[in-house]
Amino acid sequence: MRVLIRMLNLVRLPATVTTVPPFQGGLDGVFVADRVQDGMTEAGGAEISPQTAWMIAVRDRRDRAAFARLFDYYAPRLKSVTLRSGTPAAEAEDIVQDVMLAVWHKASQYDPARADVSGWIYRIARNRQIDLARRKARPEPEDLMLDASHAPEADQIVAMAQEAGELRRALGQLAPEQKRLIEKAYLGDMSHVEIREDTGLPLGTIKSRIRLGLERLRYELKELRKT
Amino acid sequence: MTDISHHVPDWMIRDYVGGALSYAFDLVVATHVSMCDECRARLGAHEALAGAALDASGPAEVSDGLRDAVLARLDDRPRQRPRPAAFGVFPAPLAEALHGRPPRWRSLGLGVRQCILHEDRTGSARLLFIPPEQAVPEHGHRGLELTLVLQGSFHDETDQFEVGDLEVADSDLTHVPVAGKGAPCICLAATNAPLRFKGFLPRLTQRLFRI
């Protein structure tokens, strides 16, 4: 609950966030962080994306209006990605539905200090698709158990959001050929073809950020176990 | 676990995130990441990148009623499958592959034992139990072979592998892994093609034991 109070103090959910700007197709629309500037949310003088703010509102306050906004933003994208990866059209909306319900039910596991909200939702979607395709639960890494008392600092959340924003900008500046590689790797059909090539993207800084979050979490969990 | 020195290659983390790996390789990556913060952070970075790609994807039109249908179901009890917790030397993903029960070992001779976890046309995953200082028969493989140490250690011509370390051996490598001194070596081995053993006897064993 400390998170809730802290976030309510720091995160002003602006009325403008209902309008997510129209999207151009393909990776040309990667300047998301830039385009939704108007809807950016203030937190301690820095910015987190509206999607992050909605997700935190869903997690901490079970906010249905914020969830509806998440739906409006993610459902069309999830459907598009699901179709691209080879799922029959008839099943695509079922998957979108499952994924959005999972976002609601798993909200307590969302940690804005360690994960980008779009990446977190992407993971839920991929896992769901794979579970269905294999008719078997996909192996997932062990969860680091978040205790109710685990409250990431607001500055960590903002730092994570900034790193994710940087990554989007870097992605936006890639040559078309590199963009196609990224699309192929994450949005393409999930054939077992190992392309042993690097994405060539600067993932180092966001990795360091996540690692910092992990170290802090490990430390906090250790302290918790002592008490 | 700060002293892991052999990690999952970056392209494999990327393909785990993108969903392009087989079940057997998914299992190895998920198990290693459970033991390794470095790779957990790298996986997070790739997820953030995938999230950015999701943001940038051209949205598809969804049916009119879909949003209301989802909103109407928010209070439904979520379908949750219980996932077995980690036990012994087996992190949660392996505990799940073992259905929460200790491995049922089958002898391969010379004290070496195995427990097949998964096998299909995309590859296989199995646990290996190798007594201290015992060698696993020389073998090559058509595809890739991943070996993740869960207990003890092993070494081969290339290097030394301790708990949490992952060896990625491609088809060029014909190697003889030897378990280290001390505790028996328990590892998770996965391939994306059947193994090839040299010599008649191992080949026969291969047929009998499906390795």
From TrEMBL, chain B:
It comes from the Bacteria. This is ChrR family anti-sigma-E factor. It holds the Pfam family Cupin_7. The lineage of its organism: Bacteria, Pseudomonadati, Pseudomonadota, Alphaproteobacteria, Rhodobacterales. Residues 104-191 form the ChrR-like cupin domain.
